Amino acid sequence: MDKRQLDGLLALKLVAESGHFTAAAKTLGVTPSAVSQMIKQLEGRLGVALLSRTTRSTSLTEAGARFMAEAGVALDQILVAMENVRSFAARPAGTLKVTLPRAVYPAFISQHIASFTAKYPEITLELHFEDERTDIVGRGFDCGIRLADIVARDMVALKLYGPVQFSIAASPGYLDRHGRPLHPRDLLQHNCIRPRSGSWIYDSWEFVVDGKEVAVQVSGSLIFSDTLLMLDAACRGTGLVFATADMVSQFVAEGRLETVLDKFTIQREGFYLYYPHRAQVLPKLRAFIDHLRAARLSVPPVPGISI
Description:
It is a single chain. It is built from 9 helices and 16 strands. By secondary structure, it is an alpha/beta fold. Strands 7, 8, 9, 12, 13, 14 and 15 form a 7-stranded mixed sheet that branches. The protein has a 5-stranded mixed sheet with strand order 4-3-5-16-6, covered by helices on one side. α1 crosses α2 and α2 crosses α3. The longest helix is centred in the N-terminal third of the chain and has 29 residues. The chain is rod-shaped, with a radius of gyration of 30 Å. The chain starts with 8 loop residues before the first helix and ends in a 12-residue tail after the last helix. The relative contact order is 0.14.
């Protein structure tokens, strides 16, 4: 459809409601002659007169009245929708969809949720817990939270916390039965519980040996797509896990897990909030970013990621 077909609709609606070109022109911020020209062009495209003009008044013709009766409701809906969208640009409001690993919630996000929702009552925060790399644009998310290693390079990213230390852990009972590994290569003799991230299984566990990063290709009888449930399985004595130190620390303090190979474990940059490059960031996302920005202590840059 030729988009010019829509030109003049608003002008016609305003003239029909006020009965005057001058009032419609004032609302639109144009001259009365410009309003008259828009409506004449609309009439020309439709091939029928929509307004009856006299020196004393202006009113809808029969065709114009029928046209507005059928098209006016839709036009009203469009105007309401436009006004609603403008309100999103004016204040923090609406649903903010965030994708993040479940383990990040207790580690960092949970402590800031109450203050955020109290400060911005018109924002509904919708959290989706998943570990895999996510197409936030394709799936309709406003932002995501992931390790720096898997944040897409075409995203804007804000550091939340880090660096992050990783640990290898198992239940004391498992280690008593199968022995405590003394070197990363000893993991080849153990049942390693591996995390899944989408189609990718993380079975190449990384360490630092003699100052160099090395990877050990592990195997095992369990694969989990949920990190917290993976830790629960480890607590029950089924094998070893590779997870962030802050995730296993509580279980270690409770005596349910024990860390091994501590002198070989690796450190990564940390977790980042990321979102697409846009000319304008909606106020709801800006409010969330600013709230978390105020909560963190420092923002060291990561090469290749915009801060």
